[in-house]
Every structure is written in C-alpha cells, then in structure tokens.
Amino acid sequence: MPKIVVLPHDDLCPEGAVFEANSGETVLDVALKNGIGIEHACEKSCACTTCHVIVREGFDSLEESEELEDDMLDKAWGLEPESRLGCQAVVADEDLVVEIPRYTLNHASEDH
C-alpha cells in the first residue's frame, strides 16, 4: 500500500505526517481523511488553486495533469515543476512526498 509523506507545514501539519493511501485516491482526500485541513474552496472540482501541493518525491508515478489543471496551476502562488492540485493528483502504486505550500489563493476565506 503506498504511503504519502506530508512535509512539516507551520499551520496544517507542524510535525509532518505519514499516511497510508489506496491507489486511486487523491492526495487531497487522503490528507483530509487524516485530519490535514488542506483548503479546497471549489469542493474538488478543479476550479481553484487552494489545494495546490508540490510533489517532492514520486511525481512521475502520477498521471499527467490535464489542461484544466494546468490552467489552474498557472494561477497558483509558488508554482514549481512538480506542482499539482491535490484534488487531481491520484495516488498510483508509489510512495509520495508532498509539500503543502505556505500560501494558497482563496480571497474569499482570507482573514482581514
């Protein structure tokens, strides 16, 4: 069973974490069911960038992103070559190491 290693994140996962994942689950779903509150403002419909993650290891095991995801990622803060939307990154049979960027773009939920 593949594992997802979440690197430490100041707010969402200060000490990092390791979770088992089923092939076919998205990175976002695995994180959410394990208590990591990654934002997903569009309810996993690939219409925002709030679930942006960077896949530090295992990126090549993921299916290629589709054009809609690429268009959304172009708007993501801190975009890197290994960036994916957590709602679209489907776990295959390899372990993944994932970093949650410090900032996401969700103007509707920003604290003022």
Automatic annotation (TrEMBL):
GO terms (BP aspect): P450-containing electron transport chain
InterPro entries the UniProt entry points to: 2Fe-2S_ferredoxin-like_sf, 2Fe-2S_ferredoxin-type, Adrenodoxin-like, Adrenodoxin_Fe-S_BS, Beta-grasp_dom_sf, Fdx_isc
Molecular functions (GO terms): 2 iron, 2 sulfur cluster binding; electron transfer activity; metal ion binding
SUPFAM superfamilies (UniProt xref): 2Fe-2S ferredoxin-like (SSF54292)
Function: Ferredoxin are iron-sulfur proteins that transfer electrons in a wide variety of metabolic reactions. Although the function of this ferredoxin is unknown it is probable that it has a role as a cellular electron transfer protein. Involved in the in vivo assembly of the Fe-S clusters in a wide variety of iron-sulfur proteins.
Reported cofactor(s): [2Fe-2S] cluster
CDD domains: fer2
Species of origin: Vibrio halioticoli NBRC 102217
Family: Belongs to the adrenodoxin/putidaredoxin family.
Domain 2Fe-2S ferredoxin-type, first and last residues per copy: 2-104
GO CC annotations on file: cytosol
Keyword annotations: 2Fe-2S, Electron transport, Iron, Iron-sulfur, Metal-binding, Transport
PANTHER family: FERREDOXIN-2, MITOCHONDRIAL (PTHR23426:SF65), FERREDOXIN/ADRENODOXIN (PTHR23426)
Pfam family, one: Fer2
PROSITE patterns hit by this protein: 2FE2S_FER_2, ADX
Protein name in the entry: 2Fe-2S ferredoxin
Keyword Electron transport: yes
